[in-house]
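Please produce the structure of this protein holding iron/sulfur cluster.
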Amino acid sequence: MVNLKINGIPVSVPEGSTILEAAKLANIRIPTLCYLKDVQCVGSCRMCLVEATGARGLVAACVYPVSEGMEVKTNTPKVRKSRKTTVELILSTHKKKCLSCVRSMNCELQKLALEYNAEEDRFGTDHDLKPIDDLSPSVVRDNSKCVMCTRCVAACAKQTIGVIGPKHRGYAKVIGSPFDASLAHTSCVNCGQCIVACPVGALYEKSDVANVWGAIVNPEKHVVFFTAPSIKATLGEAFGLPVGTNVEGKMVAAIKQLGDVQCFNMDLTADLTIMEEANELLQRIMKGGKLPMFTSCCPGWVKFAEHYYPEILPNISTCKSPQEMFSAVLKTYYCQKHNIKPEDLYVVSVIPCTAKKFEITRDEIGHYTDAAITTRELAKMIKEAHIDFANLPEEDYDAPFGEASGAGIIFGATGGVMEAALRTAAYVLGGEGAPLEFKEVRGTAGLKEAEYEIGGSKIKVAVANGLGNARKVIEQVKSGEKDYTFVEVMACPGGCINGGGQPYVHDEVRNSIDLKAVRAQALYNADKDNKIRCSHENSAVDTLYKEYFGKPLSEKSHELLHTHYHQRNKY
Ligand code: SF4
Ligand code: SF4
Ligand code: SF4
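Below is the modeled complex.
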């Protein structure tokens, strides 16, 4: 251990710790901008400069190691002046359109500018605006707001995609893709982890809010919303509620106040996905199909496989994602049952995910979803409608698509799809009394593996979250090092609870709590309290099979609930 003092407070930390880590232990805040826990630590923005004995000049706390007897001062006039100047220099090249910026009131630069009384124009203003890249269906880049922290570059590299990086030198430097290509023309998988990492309004999702408002006020349209499993665990953050608050009832009430709309529960088609996927797995095991079978509910992961590992496409389940299953059910079964023309039904999916905005554009999926809006976009609509979210009385989802099992709920966390499938596979093979909890696949570790004996058969499973971990699993399978039966992959670290469309969370919070674990816990708590825990117990799913699909993997199911994939080039 190394002993030092920060602002006179004694702290003891392991050797090799940085001043920033020691300050966190002492409960002293040092501002950061380019630093982001688990993503990047490069010491380039100079916001975290402090005075430290033994150092020449100010040092960057995020990278400077502590030493025995060191005395650190984080709040001297020299330190404050340096940070203020840093902010003012950043502001000189920043498009200062705070009033209409998607990050206004939630921007890390805005917060620092206020804290240090920075003058907006001390070093002038750059009026030479850079072009906005908005060709991608998922991610918009406005480089005139970029502060060059490179957090997005590190996030993309961590996903082992690396389609963005710094280009040009000095004043002309910008973040972008090779050969000035739009992000839409690269092998970007639309995961949105670059957006999650960005501290300012330089990266955001392609918004569908205006189209959804247009449908709501159109008397010809019958508008239905459905919400993905993780939204209930994150939407509250956009209204100041603590991380990990389950706001399902308020969320449903708020959506119903947006206009004459219905609100359904996507956890139900997570259950439907499990019915199809668990049966597909059992069929592959019994009839000698391609194994391991990989899950298919994450469109970021599917696009990754299409670009980087086309040889494993036959291993990916043919099940559509819960979003696409729901939209197909609505535009066929639901429309027929209620005498609605499919073109008059406007289907809005609320998702944690920017990749699902891309998914709805895939021709082979059937164009059943009219708009896919992120948790952030839903929050924006609720705020625009001046709905007092925190004080709303709770409401239930609308019939007939309100019921869900605990298995459907945990889809939003890494390991959730695997556990949900195992619950149903164990029931199908083992009957009543089959196990309900498979805790080995829970938790936020990037890679988890387990072996279970189900109905007399050994099933080896792996769960990967984050595409770097997916790559590791695929390489192990290809080399023969691992012989898994079933593999779950989620593109986003932690799964959908940390998706690219989830509420912005300041670096200060991200750096101090395990955001993914706290959000996931809200889903596991809801699973535990739910009346039914398994997908095969969902009576609404049962009705769908009885009235429309017949049975899992039927011809009708294959027509509407399954899809196929195709190789894409790498750019
Ligand atoms: S969306 Fe994902 S893959 Fe695309 S640039 Fe951002 S981090 Fe990279
Ligand atoms: S786009 Fe955002 S995350 Fe990327 S370098 Fe610019 S400010 Fe940083
Ligand atoms: S993990 Fe979830 S949020 Fe992330 S890309 Fe996949 S489906 Fe979307």
